[in-house]
Design a protein that fits this description.
The complex is a heterodimer of chains A (252) and B (258).
Chain A: H1 3-20, H2 33-60, H3 63-79, E1 83-84, E2 90-91, H4 96-103, H5 105-123, H6 131-155, H7 160-186, H8 193-230, H9 232-238, H10 243-251
Helix pairs in contact in A: 2-5, 2-6, 3-5, 4-5, 4-6, 4-7, 5-6, 6-7, 7-8, 9-10
Chain B: H1 2-9, H2 17-31, H3 36-53, H4 58-66, H5 69-80, E1 81-83, E2 90-96, E3 99-104, H6 105-131, H7 134-143, H8 148-177, H9 184-215, H10 233-253
Antiparallel strand pairs in B: 1-3, 2-3
Helix pairs in contact in B: 1-6, 2-6, 2-10, 3-6, 3-10, 5-6, 7-8, 8-9
Chain lengths: 252, 258
């Protein structure tokens, strides 16, 4: 290859890397209407499950409603922070793993959707027509994966830091995989079809998002450690939300 | 937050929020028609309505409109680049690991169409968010029978978001003034501490909020007074005729770039 071309490719990557990191929200108007409706329908039952489980929680302890509302605000603020990453680029932590570990996956589907609505309206990240797709990737798949990974490693007797780290990192990664899947389904590349397009999106995400997922994993470990070190009370109170999780942390 | 400020100070604040929601959503629906002229008309129309009717300064609106570009342009760029089988197909290309990658005329068309549609829908979104305060929107959603628990949570999120933003900003400033973000490793540690204190604040505030509400006779539901704005029939007529005109543009121009 000519040096000019190599330079151009490096330049392109440098331009893209810090930006695409943000692009895990699918923009308003980016998906064709067919896929907007499809993802709305797919995300819908999970949100209903979330509403039912929140109602149940609130019935057992009315304080939970305040806590959940404020946690939503917390998640919004978290998403506006910059996460220092290994490559030096920046992205925002999603808080998906943290929320799923603390509150369980169903609650996160509703909270995540609300945060996504606010991000669309107040910050113009994501959008109303792509709300279903974004909810599915960030508020359904991410938390579910995080929660299952966390539980699985706990059950296998792994240390707390490892389970939290992997839960947050894998939850992040699977969110990106879902987003690439959604984009590839909506935009199959013209020669090559769905698979080529999926590989293309995944390739970009692999370069940019793996370091970020590791960053988010580390951050979540730091947060859980600090939390269990100096605010036992809060974690015990949270145990109403997801019993086993916090009791285990409390013991450690 | 720039957008939120204008939601309360624009000139359309006393228009029924349902009408604004209807206008924004129907324009979005029309925006899905694959026709570049319709998209261009929507972008222009929203700009004109926001600047003239809502009184948003042109400079501010342009600034807001640039916000999504940093997300949109890279995504469009990625879509434009495809694997090409033959040399002749590509207008411009390069090889990665013996796979020929390039830009074709077809992919530029797809990307251009998509860019305009996204911008059209984004300007509809901006119309909604720049003219309608969140509280009004929640009121409309209540009329639309969205589950009450979601609306309550939305109110709480909206209220505390600003409190937490302020706090985060302050902690961040004081941390960075003490070189808390000088290396990635220190950064992770500092950010972890920031998130932790934010979370503890979240927990404590939720406790005191509950106590405060209980003291004022809280019985499990947060009720707020709704504004009483009448629905204007002439506005509804204007909205519907605008959307019909847009559809007419789509019919006359027959898909534009397609």
């Amino acid at each position: 290859m000519k040096p000019l071309k190599i330079f151009f490719i490096i330049f392109t990557i440098m331009v893209l890397v810090p930006r695409v990191a943000f692009a895990m929200h699918i923009m308003e108007g980016f998906l064709p209407i067919k896929w907007c409706i499809t993802w709305d329908l797919i995300a819908f039952p999970f949100v209903v499950m979330g509403i039912l489980s929140i109602k149940k929680l609130v019935n057992t302890n009315p304080k939970i409603k305040m806590l959940l509302g404020l946690t939503g605000a917390f998640a919004f603020v978290l998403s506006a922070l910059k996460l220092p990453s290994v490559t030096g680029s920046c992205s925002h932590p999603t808080g998906v793993g943290l929320g799923a570990v603390l509150f369980g996956p169903w609650v996160m589907s509703v909270l995540g959707m609300i945060v996504l609505i606010f991000q669309a309206l107040l910050l113009a990240h994501g959008g109303i027509t792509t709300l279903g797709a974004n909810t599915f990737s960030m508020a359904v798949v991410g938390p579910l994966v995080s929660y299952l990974v966390y539980k699985g490693i706990k059950k296998a007797g792994g240390p707390l830091w490892l389970s939290v780290f992997l839960a947050a990192a894998l939850g992040d990664l699977l969110t990106y995989v879902t987003t690439s899947l959604q984009l590839a389904l909506a935009f199959p590349s013209n020669p090559g079809g769905f698979m080529t397009s999926f590989v293309k999106f995944m390739g970009i995400f692999a370069v940019t998002q793996v370091p970020l997922a590791i960053g988010e994993g580390l951050l979540t470990v730091v947060v859980i450690n600090l939390l269990s070190a100096y605010n036992e009370e809060a974690l015990v109170a949270l145990s109403v939300v997801s019993k086993e999780v916090c009791c285990e942390e409390y013991e450690e | 937050m720039l957008i939120d400020n204008y939601a309360y100070t624009n000139k359309l604040i006393n228009v029924h929020p349902g009408e604004k929601l209807l206008f924004s959503l129907t324009s979005m629906a029309v925006g899905f028609v694959p026709n570049i002229y319709v998209d261009l008309v929507i972008i222009l129309m929203m700009g004109v309505v926001l600047v003239w009717k809502a009184g948003i300064p042109t400079k501010v609106y342009l600034k807001v409109l640039v916000l999504p570009l940093s997300f949109l342009l890279p995504s469009i760029f990625v879509l434009m680049i495809n694997v090409v089988s033959t040399e002749s197909q590509a207008l411009w290309g390069f090889s990665v690991f013996h796979v020929r990658v390039g830009v074709t005329a077809a992919s530029i068309k797809v990307a251009g169409l998509l860019f305009l549609r996204a911008m059209a829908l984004i300007s509809c979104l901006f119309f909604l968010s720049l003219t309608t305060p969140m509280i009004d929107l929640i009121m409309v959603l209540e009329k639309l029978k969205v589950p009450f628990i979601i609306l309550e949570l939305m109110q709480l999120v909206y209220h505390f978001l600003f409190v937490f933003m302020e706090m985060t900003y302050r902690i961040y400033i004081s941390q960075s003034s003490r070189l808390g973000y000088i290396t990635p490793k220190a950064g992770i540690n500092s950010l972890g501490r920031l998130v932790t204190s934010l979370f503890i604040k979240t927990y404590q505030d939720s406790e005191s909020l509950y106590v405060a509400l209980e003291a004022r006779g809280y019985d499990g539901e947060l009720r707020v007074l709704n504004k009483n704005i009448p629905v204007s029939k002439s506005n509804l007529f204007c909205i519907l005729s605008t959307e019909l005109l847009l559809l007419l543009v789509a019919l006359v121009t027959q898909g534009g770039m397609r």
